[in-house]
Each structure stands twice: as structure tokens, then as C-alpha cells.
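User: Quick sanity check before I run a bigger batch. Here is a single chain. Can you write out its predicted 3D structure?
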Amino acid sequence: MGSCRISQGVKGVKSTRSTECCVIIDVLRASSTVVTALARGFQEVRTVTTIRDALGLRKKGYILAGERKGITLPGFDLGNSPVEVARAARKHTVKNMVLTTSNLTRALACCKGACICSSLNITAVCKYISGKSANIVAVGGSHGIVEDLGVALTLAMLIKGMKLEKRLIQKMITQSRAAEYLVSIGFKADVKFITAVDKFDIVPIYKRGKVKILDYEWN
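Assistant: Done. Predicted structure follows.
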């Protein structure tokens, strides 16, 4: 039987042992954006750490999504917004997206592989890592880490067979400093969207700079 532990930030990612599955959580908003993109029809999310690298992929047919300090980057098609991504998925024929963010993409660059978790797919991730040893990483950011730790702790409890308390997750998200900041800069709709616990039944897997829905052959 596997075990799980909770760690934090880039150091937490780097501490992942070879025997562990790395689960990365950046609920407000990057992991939620990735989950939504794949659930709504994007085939691949490429993650990069620099704006320059993202812009370089436009000529290869990627839709550009990204932010710094929560604000959509100049010249990009989308921000780091699950609401925007869900709308874009209905409009665009291009189904590959590149994402660069303040925190998640930097964390992903430090690992060989990971599972992306949000409030939106927490039960699906729980089922995937059940029986495995896991390092659950709460990424956090400049506005704190409470919401990510809340999802991480809930996931750990679910793995141990405890009940999913949706209201508790929702409160930890909406009452966090990160949520307050996002609302103040005009992203209240994203915060509300992200409180929809278990909206999607998918497991996004990161490998070699790309995130796709779990495919056991690819994984």
C-alpha cells in the first residue's frame, strides 16, 4: 500500500523521490486552467517558464495563454483563466495551448513527471494515485498557500478513505488572500468557477514539458 506526504513549492517538487508520484496543486489558477483546457477539448498544454519561449510557439500553431502577477500577458490570446480557456475551446479549431505562469510552470520545470490536481478534479486524481506513494505539492505564490494546502490536505484525507468536504474546500479557496487578489483585479468569475469541486473526471499528466489527459500507454 502506498503512502502520501504533503510538501510545498519548488523545493517540494524537487524533493520527490523516484518511488513517488508527484502531484502538483496550484488551484488559483494554473492547475485549474490546465484541467479545464484538457477537459474542454484541448489535446495538449505545453508549459514553459518564459514569455519568449511561449511567443516562439505561436508560429507552430499554439494558442498562447499566460500571466504575470495574475494579469494577462501582452500579445497573448488568453490569460491564466479557466473561464477564458473554456470559452476559447468552443471557438478555436487549434487544440494545442502553451501556458506560462508565475508559479506552476516554474514548478513543473523542476520535475520529470507529475499529475496536475485542482479542486475541479480532486476525486479523479485520488483514484489515480490510490495505492501509490505520492508527494502532494502545494505550490503557493506571492499571495499565500492556504488554498493549495487545503486541496492537498483534502486529497490526502480522501486517499485515506475520509469523506470529501466540498464546502471546506470552497471556503479555503474563496477566503484565501489569492482569491481576494484575483477578485480585486477582475477575476471573480474564475474564483467561482474553481469552487465547482469535481466538475471534471480527468487526470492530466505532465511529461517532458507537455500535459495531456492520462493515457496509460503515454504515461
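The mean pLDDT is 95.

User: Great, the batch can go ahead then.
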